[in-house]
């Protein structure tokens, strides 16, 4: 599978994952900083959470790993959670801001 096609499939999968406290998917929330397709279809994802004390801090990275790993053609997945830059509402898509009433 071409890396561009696989990246699109990964992003589609990320749109299916929601922060349990917010009715917007993690991609639109701006929690995904990077999706990189490495050789032999290994996927590297750099993400953050809304706050270090986020109740979903343990579950969300695991869910990201599992959803991406389930995509046909993915060889391996590495999810890194980072805190720099810290997440803020400006990282949300326009659609997410509208859904949450921030616009």
Provide keyphrases for this structure.
103 residues, alpha+beta, GMP Synthetase, Chain A, domain 3, 3 strands
Structure overview:
It is a single chain. With 103 residues, the protein is of the alpha+beta class. It has a single domain (3-99), classed as Fe-S cluster assembly (FSCA) (GMP Synthetase, Chain A, domain 3), CATH 3.30.300. It is 28% helix and 18% strand. It is built from three helices and three strands; from the N terminus they run αββαβα. It has helices spanning 3-14, 59-69, 94-99, and strands at residues 32-38, 42-47, 76-81. It has a three-stranded mixed sheet with strand order 1-2-3, covered by helices on one side. β2 (42-47), α2 (59-69) and β3 (76-81) form a beta-alpha-beta unit. The longest helix is centred in the first third of the chain and has 12 residues, at 3-14. The radius of gyration is 13 Å and the shape is globular. The N and C termini lie far apart (39 Å). The model has no long low-confidence stretch (mean pLDDT 93).
Outline of the structure:
With 103 residues, the chain is an alpha+beta fold.
Ordered list of secondary-structure elements with their pairings:
Elements: H1 3-14, E1 32-38, E2 42-47, H2 59-69, E3 76-81, H3 94-99
Parallel strand pairs: 2-3
Antiparallel strand pairs: 1-2
CATH topology category name: GMP Synthetase, Chain A, domain 3
The strand line-up of the biggest sheet is 1-2-3
Judging by the overall fold, what is the CATH architecture? 2-Layer Sandwich
The residue-averaged pLDDT reads 93
CATH class: Alpha Beta
Number of helices: 3
User: How many whole angstroms does the radius of gyration measure?
Assistant: 13 Å
Number of domains: 1
Give the N-terminus to C-terminus distance in angstroms: 39 Å
| Low-confidence sequence ranges | none
Bulk shape: globular
Could you estimate the helical fraction of the residues in percent? Answer: 25-40%
Class from helix and strand fractions: alpha+beta
The CATH superfamily turns out to be: Fe-S cluster assembly (FSCA)
Question: What is the helix/strand order?
Answer: HEEHEH
In total, the number of strands is: 3
Tell me the major beta sheet: 3 strands, mixed
User: What's the quaternary structure here?
Assistant: single chain
- Report the β-strand fraction as a percent range: 15-25%
